[in-house]
């Protein structure tokens, strides 16, 4: 656990304690489990976002990708009555393909990640709305989806499955990022692509790898989110989620300059964002202030981190 | 001419950096309507002296007299106000603006009173006669991006004229010009001189000095090495001035004769010089020095050999077998490594610990399945740190905190922990203190004695002559000559570097 993760953890505890003090309901089992569920749902694609940010890239298209994959997923299950494991597989593969597309556009054609994924955002959102004629897609009386419903939105040992899914994803990606060759390459390429290239690393493949993982995790998130909302309205499903993801990654210590960040940090960042949302509800703050609270806390967090970093650098230099 | 008062005089200018005396008591005078040629080897102090004139560097001692006023040091605005202008080799222009905007940058004609709008018509009208005077074949409205390097240089000169510069300093102006463009530039210099502008002309191309200079001043090791008046200017005299220092004994002879293998480049065509073909043989067990002027194509050659800019033509053989060089990966797999010129940007990931930098190129050998064995990684790095005597508290220290010499050793450690067959060193001791230099030379020799083929690109004449077993000299993308140890001399290297005697050597 590095310094940033510790600081973030401390901030979490303080905000949690204050909220609990003001309204003890914050610590009720129902509220905690509800938050855990949301943390699971948001955490998975935020980890994907974090991986891309570590390569000094960004993915603005996640939210729209969720909507497009979401409508396709529901359509496959409801109208085509595809056996659900195949439908899940299609969504995961589609996520991978979109990630591959972004990766190739960024590395082979030299386009800026911001531009590529901004276009992705517009295209996928538009495609999703066109696909359903702007109508909301629900499950209605779809066939036998009990198993999938249980998998995606059920509980084991009282814990919501999305949260368990996040734990598994965080563990796997954590090992990949912090213990594997690929992870080391990711940091090296994100921080100094030139030096990585001079060391004989196929830097393009590494960057494409990050976008692939981002796409795959977006696909997984789609499956879970669809069963959370139980219907997909293509114009609002996943709206702004790319920004939640970026916020979680930045709070979690990822620098937009690349080469920095940890999986634990991104998860903690997601937790903090959900606590803030919850705090707005539970303390009776007007919900219209939701975004303003989130923005202020992120700004303060980043500012505090930078000041701390500067002082440390000054001490080291002296 | 002697009767004319100087427009600029430098008196006893010195500049010290920690450990280095970049300028040592340099004095010179420049009169209006005079072209002063300034020569000297790389690192002789020419750029520092010009930075003093431009107001970028403050001298530690001495005084500057410009236009009758005396200054202990100049600032950038002082220098501009005194009428000093530069035409650089790297052009200081905005390629997203048009010619007129560049020429009049900072002194744009305005209209609309308090609105301070740009008056584009007035700007064009002011720039047009300047361009005509320089014989430029483009209009003030032309976007800069549409111009060639030679045309951009005319824009720089027009900019100097617009600023009513009385002293124009040309710093390596022809390094990327063709012959006819060079001739035209020299004609412009003559025109400026005739109009009374004082000119300092810095170049490695001595023929241009012979063509245009009224007087030549030579710097060597930060000191004034001598002055040549109009009648005395000639190649031999200038080369004599540029050299003339005792060489220290750096050379350690190889323990055995070079082996049969090594790296051979046949008719290699690089991106920088698509017309030229380079042939080079680096024998296993030798240190081959690669000398040449800045911009002669030495770094391009190394980049091509390492697969960074894959060769456009020709072939590369390692121990007689053709090598595919589409990327650095191919080179690294074959045991062909590069220690790059800019170690901070290309050699290291500065924010990573020593151990992670050392393992970066051979990470798969530290992995079981795909998980890293960090203990093995640290152990390997510790071995390298010990054998290269890298000064660091432990291998978890980030590379950014190390000194230049120790950083260079970390770059080396990365390659030495693998299986080197050929190592290309690009300016291996630039910015490194004398003690660490000696250690790097010793390391290169030890590697060569183990049968590694070593190429050392260097602009430091003392180093090239003192360390190499043979020297290859490059000129405009080609190898203009090869020297064996018994033929080593600064004159011989320099003559080949400026493209002279090429026929004789070939």
From TrEMBL, chain A:
InterPro entries given in the database record: ABC_transp_permease (IPR001851)
Topology in membrane: Multi-pass membrane protein
GO cellular component terms attached to this protein's record: plasma membrane
GO molecular function terms listed in the Swiss-Prot or TrEMBL record: transmembrane transporter activity
Superkingdom, natural source: Bacteria
UniProt keywords, alphabetically: Cell membrane, Membrane, Transmembrane, Transmembrane helix
Residue stretches spanning the membrane: 7-26, 32-53, 60-78, 84-106, 113-131, 163-187, 208-228, 286-304
Cell compartment(s), UniProt: Cell membrane
Main subcellular localisation: membrane
Entry protein name: Sugar ABC transporter permease
The species this protein was found in: Teichococcus aestuarii
Lineage: Bacteria, Pseudomonadati, Pseudomonadota, Alphaproteobacteria, Acetobacterales
TrEMBL record, chain B:
Keywords: ATP-binding, Cell membrane, Membrane, Nucleotide-binding, Repeat, Sugar transport, Translocase, Transport
SUPFAM superfamilies noted in UniProt: P-loop containing nucleoside triphosphate hydrolases (SSF52540)
UniProt cross-references to Pfam families, sorted A to Z: ABC_tran (PF00005)
Coiled-coil regions, chain positions: none
Residue span(s) of domain ABC transporter: 8-246, 247-501
MF-aspect GO terms: ATP binding; ATP hydrolysis activity
InterPro entries in the cross-refs: AAA+_ATPase (IPR003593), ABC_carbohydrate_import_ATPase (IPR050107), ABC_transporter-like_ATP-bd (IPR003439), ABC_transporter-like_CS (IPR017871), P-loop_NTPase (IPR027417)
Entry protein name: D-xylose ABC transporter ATP-binding protein
Species of the source: Teichococcus aestuarii
């Amino acid at each position: 656990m590095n310094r940033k993760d510790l600081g973030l953890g401390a901030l979490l505890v303080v905000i949690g304690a204050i909220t609990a003090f003001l309204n003890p309901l914050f610590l009720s089992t129902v509220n905690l489990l509800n938050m855990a569920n949301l943390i699971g749902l948001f955490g998975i694609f935020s980890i994907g976002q974090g991986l891309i940010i570590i390569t000094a890239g960004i993915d603005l298209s996640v939210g729209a990708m969720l909507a497009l994959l979401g409508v396709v997923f529901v359509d496959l299950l409801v109208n085509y009555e595809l056996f659900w494991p195949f439908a899940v597989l299609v969504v995961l593969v589609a996520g991978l393909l979109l990630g591959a597309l972004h990766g190739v556009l960024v590395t082979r054609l030299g386009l800026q990640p911001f531009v590529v994924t901004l276009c992705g955002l517009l295209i996928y959102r538009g495609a999703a709305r066109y696909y359903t004629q702007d109508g909301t897609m629900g499950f209605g009386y779809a066939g036998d989806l009990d198993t999938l419903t249980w998998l995606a939105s059920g509980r084991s040992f009282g814990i919501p499955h999305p949260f368990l899914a996040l734990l598994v994803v965080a563990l796997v990606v954590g090992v990949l990022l912090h213990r594997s060759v690929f992870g080391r390459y990711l940091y090296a390429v994100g921080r100094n692509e030139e030096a990585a290239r001079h060391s004989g690393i196929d830097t393009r493949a590494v960057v494409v790898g990050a976008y692939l993982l981002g796409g795959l995790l977006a696909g997984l998130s789609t499956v879970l989110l669809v069963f959370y909302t139980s219907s997909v309205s293509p114009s609002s499903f996943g709206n702004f989620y790319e920004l939640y993801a970026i916020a979680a990654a930045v709070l979690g210590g990822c620098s937009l300059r690349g080469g920095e960040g940890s999986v634990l940090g991104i998860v903690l960042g997601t937790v903090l964002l959900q606590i803030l949302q919850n705090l707005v509800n539970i303390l009776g703050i007007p919900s219209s202030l939701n975004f303003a609270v989130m923005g202020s806390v992120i700004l303060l967090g980043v500012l505090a981190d930078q000041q701390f970093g500067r002082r440390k650098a000054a001490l080291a230099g002296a | 001419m002697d009767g004319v008062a100087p427009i600029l005089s430098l008196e006893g200018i010195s500049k010290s950096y920690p450990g280095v005396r970049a300028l040592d008591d340099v004095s010179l005078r420049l009169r209006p309507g005079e072209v002063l040629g300034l020569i000297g080897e790389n690192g002789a102090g020419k750029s520092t002296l010009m930075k003093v004139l431009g107001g970028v560097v403050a001298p530690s001692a001495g005084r500057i007299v410009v236009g009758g006023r005396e200054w202990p040091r100049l600032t950038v605005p002082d220098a501009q106000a005194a009428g000093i202008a530069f035409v650089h080799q790297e052009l200081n222009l905005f390629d997203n603006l048009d010619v007129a905007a560049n020429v009049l940058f900072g002194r744009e004609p305005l209209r609309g009173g308090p609105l301070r709008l740009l008056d584009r018509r007035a700007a064009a009208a002011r720039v047009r006669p300047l361009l005509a005077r320089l014989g430029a074949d483009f209009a003030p409205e032309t976007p800069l991006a549409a111009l060639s390097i030679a045309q951009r240089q005319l824009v720089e000169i027009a900019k100097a004229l617009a600023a009513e510069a009385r002293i124009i300093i040309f710093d390596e102006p022809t390094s990327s010009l063709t012959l006819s463009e060079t001739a035209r530039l020299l004609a412009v210099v003559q025109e400026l001189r005739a109009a009374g502008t004082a000119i300092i002309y810095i170049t490695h191309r001595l023929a241009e000095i012979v063509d245009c200079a009224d007087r030549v001043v030579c710097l060597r090791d930060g000191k004034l090495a001598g002055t040549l008046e109009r009648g005395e200017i000639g190649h031999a005299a200038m080369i004599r001035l540029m050299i003339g220092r005792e060489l220290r004994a750096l050379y350690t002879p190889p323990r055995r004769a070079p082996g049969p293998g090594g790296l051979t480049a046949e008719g290699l065509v690089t991106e920088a010089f698509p017309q030229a073909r380079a042939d080079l043989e680096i024998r296993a067990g030798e240190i081959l020095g690669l000398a040449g002027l800045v911009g002669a194509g030495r770094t391009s050659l190394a980049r091509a050999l390492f697969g960074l800019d894959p060769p456009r033509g020709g072939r590369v053989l390692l121990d007689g077998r053709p090598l595919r060089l589409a990327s650095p990966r191919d080179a690294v797999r074959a045991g062909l490594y590069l220690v790059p010129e800019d170690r901070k940007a290309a050699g290291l990931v500065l924010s990573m610990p020593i151990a992670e930098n050392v393992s970066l190129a051979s990470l798969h050998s530290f992995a079981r399945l795909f998980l890293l064995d960090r203990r093995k990684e640290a152990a390997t790095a510790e071995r390298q740190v010990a054998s290269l005597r890298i000064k660091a508290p432990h291998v978890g220290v980030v590379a950014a905190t190390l000194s230049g010499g120790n950083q260079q050793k970390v770059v080396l450690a990365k390659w030495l922990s693998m299986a080197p067959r050929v190592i290309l060193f690009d300016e291996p001791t630039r910015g490194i203190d004398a003690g660490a230099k000696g250690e790097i030379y010793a390391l290169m020799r030890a590697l060569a004695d183990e049968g590694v083929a070593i190429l050392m690109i260097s602009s430091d004449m003392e180093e090239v002559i003192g360390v190499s077993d043979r020297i290859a000299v490059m000129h405009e993308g080609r190898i203009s000559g090869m020297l064996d140890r018994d033929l080593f001399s600064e004159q011989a290297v320099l003559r080949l570097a400026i493209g002279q005697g090429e026929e004789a050597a070939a």
